[in-house]
Amino acid sequence: MSPAAEGGQLRRSNFRATWVKALKAAGLPAEVHFHDLRHTGNTLASNTGASTRELMTRMGHSTSRAALIYQHMTGDRDRAIADGLGAMIRQSREEDDDPT
Description:
The chain is 66% helix and 0% strand. The protein is an all-alpha fold. The radius of gyration is 22 Å and the shape is elongated.
């Protein structure tokens, strides 16, 4: 268990008050849930190129099902994939055109 702000154990019974205080200190709306941090962190990790196995390890899961949830397709990632495929096609065509 993690220590609470006053040095005691952070438990379900005292977590809510600590969380609300942290939200206010960070200037975040009350609608932000603790689990949102986990989702955001794992989505950002996925966007850096973390593999399914790496996400599984970070989340403490033994199957890929949960990790796949965080591997959203983003516009930037979609562009990188398309560019990579285009480069492979161009290279293949250049090799086919090479008379040697």
